[in-house]
Amino acid sequence: MNHHDDPQEREAARLEGRAEEPCDKVPTYQELLDDALEQTFPASDPISPSAAMHAEERIATRKDEKDWALTPGSECEAPQAQAEDSTDRQERA
């Protein structure tokens, strides 16, 4: 039995770079990267070359009045809907 007939040997040859047929070869990292790049274009939003023209300008905005810090879940009470859901699940179990 030659290695073309044995699926395990054929897979080993493919992974080790010894495959003879182009369709059996593992793509190189560069080929995969090129393919991924090709799949990202054209994107739904075109690039904005003008944004780079103003990159050195400083932009300042006022801070929000609201403090957006989050408290850990264990420090705050669960909303009523979630509490009822967990009770229903416990009753069904």
UniProtKB/TrEMBL annotation:
Compositional bias of kind Basic and acidic residues: 54-68
Stretches the record annotates as Disordered: 1-23, 41-93
Top-level taxon: Bacteria
Protein name: Uncharacterized protein
